[in-house]
Amino acid sequence: MKYFSTRDPDKKQAVSLQEAVIKGLADDGGLFMPERLLPIDPETLDSFSSLKLPEIAAKMLFPYVADSFSIPAFEALCQEVFNFPISWVEIEDNIFSLELFHGPTLAFKDVGARFMARLLAGFTHQEHKNIKVVVATSGDTGSAVAAGFYGMKGTKVYILFPKNKVSRMQQKQLTTWGGNVVALEVDGTFDDCQRHVKALLSDAEMQQNQVLTSANSINIARLLPQMVYFAFAASRLKQQDKPLVFSVPSGNFGNLTAGLMAQLMGIPIHQFVAATNVNDVVPSYLQEGVFTARPSVKTISNAMDVGNPSNFERMLFLFKNIETMRQHLQAYSFSDEQTEEVMKSVFQHCNYLLDPHGAVGYLGLKKYLQQNPPPAIGVFLETAHPAKFAETVKKRLRNKLVIPERLQAFEDKKEQFLSCENNYSQIKKVVLEDENQIVF
User: Fold this and answer.
1) Which three-class secondary structure state does DSSP give residue 438?
2) Which of 78, 95, 161, 240 could lock onto 58 through a cystine, CB 3.0 to 4.6 A?
3) What's the pLDDT at 131?
């Protein structure tokens, strides 16, 4: 399987999986995609209902990594990556929460970060190369990447996070690692952090004497494993013989793009809903036909505060035009007030605790089902544990939130981070010249 840039529609510049993962971003500034999405045959699809999560992952993803792994080696990798549960909870009749927060950092991004870390470890070990990983985070990506790469020999991670725009616990998870993980607090927005990461990857000087890559969802290694939990959930819920609708709380749109890729491979998903907060550039595009990036606005669902989502480019690549995209996807946006209200009502009536992002996903699902009456099985993604947003949840619900031990462990750790202006030159200098604490 070869990989091509989204800006290379004629597929003239083929690269291997190894090159796509290590480069992160194509030379032309586009995002890597597989040369084709391979249909899953009906017999294999039927087998998923009796397979465990790591087994589904190995079967579904092996064709995309076959040039780099033997079957036994890749099966072992999947057993390592998918070693925590992904569960679904029926909170109303035919309405399910797909809980993706049972991994090491209690966020769905554990899946992609752990997968990518193991791919990179294998690739760089084969070539005896050291590598620097840069990542922008709006909250959860950074901690998942830090956990995935912490202590990995020959690797140093730089996490760019926006000042005062992540929750207190998210910041603790970003800034208390030390070792080969460096946290950079940027006086700007997530979009600024993401722009700096892309600039680093495109900077020829940065690549002269080192290998530099990104662990954001611009990296194809993040998206491939995220297809798996859509297939896993569909294999368990399809037995109810109703069409499946997935509502995905969306910021940078990597999670949704992975789901759309799974659907195009044949996973039986009837429709997707993109649910956003007031940072609604994609819902606006689907309604008006014009994509206009704009500065992000701070909300209580901060991981979705993105005004120029990178993976929208992949969505356009998949569907070519807005008419085709609309056949697969509907999109809605919601205010903080709506988010707060639904957190309260679901807790009161269903005894289920939503985090702000899952609440937006729930709102999107309910709106779609109101406009497209059942029968259908509705699934919304709960992408992070509510305790990661303890202040928001407690304030809105007056709930005695139980903090999981894995999160509580961060409370007593000392934060260590560098404060940076929203200035590319300053950030570049830190990443280019910093060699302290790196384990080679």
Assistant:
1) coil
2) 78
3) 87
